[in-house]
Amino acid sequence: GNIIKDVMTKGELGIVEKGSDVNDLQTEADRSAQKCILGSLSKQFPDVTIIGEEGPHNHEEEIPSEWLVTDLDDSVLASTCPSELQTIQPQDIVVWVDPLDGTSEYTQGLLDHVTVLIGLAVKGKAIGGVIHQPYYNYKIEKDTQGRTVWGLVGLGVGGFTPFKPPSNKFIITTTRSHSDPTVVKALEALKPDEIIRVGGAGHKVLMLLEGKAHAYVFASKGCKRWDTCAPEGILRSLEGKLTDIHGKEYDYSKDVAYPNAQGVFGTSKYVNHEELIAKIPQELKDRFPY
Ligand SMILES: Nc1ncnc2c1ncn2[C@@H]1O[C@H](COP(=O)(O)O)[C@@H](O)[C@H]1OP(=O)(O)O
Ligand SMILES: [Mg+2]
Ligand SMILES: [Mg+2]
Ligand SMILES: [Mg+2]
Fold it and tell me: What's the CA gap between 199 and 46, in Å, rounded?
């Protein structure tokens, strides 16, 4: 989070377009935060597979020593590990890292849309994660330290207070920078009272967790496993769900293809996930074959 803020303060974002897609940007903050996270995690957990959005980690590369995190969070370690996780092996684990989620919004100064996502998958299932929001509340609190939200299935969540969404209206959150006619059609089929268009997969799942929206709906193939692993893991820690638009869970094993090619559909536990999915016309679902 501090690395992301330092890059913004210095003002040299070093923006590059990844591939040919003008909607797919990378900045110095994405690159540096990824080096910090992959460098730190691979040092502490050498036998765990770690996959980051910005490419494989270069073990030879010098990383500034102040970027290498070596301490662990005592308050989390004081909790008891759920019994079903006590016997897992490093080979069962894949950590999916999105060093900066909401890059478009970051470059446009919509800073509270930005999150850092570290997702924990065990035997292919997203079961936990961390969403760090470096600019949480920054408009009110000038020197915000941000916040770190975490969750683990069987243990619970921390870093925030979960809220129930309103019961007198139905609110959907979706993309603001990657929309297209199919994305819009899926939203129309669900007949929401309100649509909140914000950046970032992490930010939108925070809206579900805090009761600001009932569902996160993105009928498009732009998200990848690192966008959804941490958010799904935390949602599931509170009995919510994140699936594709057919209602099927994504596989987070290390050898899967990275794109979430069947879209994203997230709900908190207060919403009937299957009932909502059933409202999306088959013709639309057929645009996202397996
Ligand atoms: N077409 C796309 N190309 C690249 N990344 C995408 C695309 N659509 C979504 N994403 C990723 O999913 C996140 C959530 O999408 P959206 O904000 O549009 O709802 C984006 O911030 C981006 O992650 P990132 O910013 O980490 O590259
Ligand atoms: Mg990106
Ligand atoms: Mg992302
Ligand atoms: Mg990213």
Answer: 33
Domain edges within the chain: 2-155, 171-285
At the top level of CATH, the class of 2-155 is alpha beta
Q: From the candidates 103, 144, 173, 228, which is the catalytic residue?
A: 103
Strands 241-243 and 215-218: unpaired
Is 103 designated active site?
yes
| Mean pLDDT, rounded, for 185-205 | 98
In this structure, which CATH number among 3.40.190.80, 3.60.21.10, 3.30.70.60, 1.20.950.20 belongs to the domain 171-285?
3.40.190.80
Closest C-alpha among 217, 282, 252 to residue 119:
252
Taking 90 as the threshold, does the pLDDT of residue 22 lie above it? no
CB of 199 sitting under 6 A from ligand 1: yes
- Which residue's CA is minimally distant from atom 13 of ligand 1? 200
- Per-residue pLDDT band at 108 (split at 50, 70, 90): very high
Ligand 1 site-directed mutation target among 22, 101, 208, most atoms within 8 Å of CB:
101
Strand 215-218 vs strand 171-174: parallel, antiparallel, or unpaired? parallel
Residue 23 CA to ligand 1 center (angstroms) comes to 8
Q: What is the pLDDT of residues 237-267, one digit of tens each?
A: 999 999 999 999 999 999 999 999 999 999 9
30 is catalytic: yes
Reduced to 3 states, what is the DSSP secondary structure of residue 267?
strand
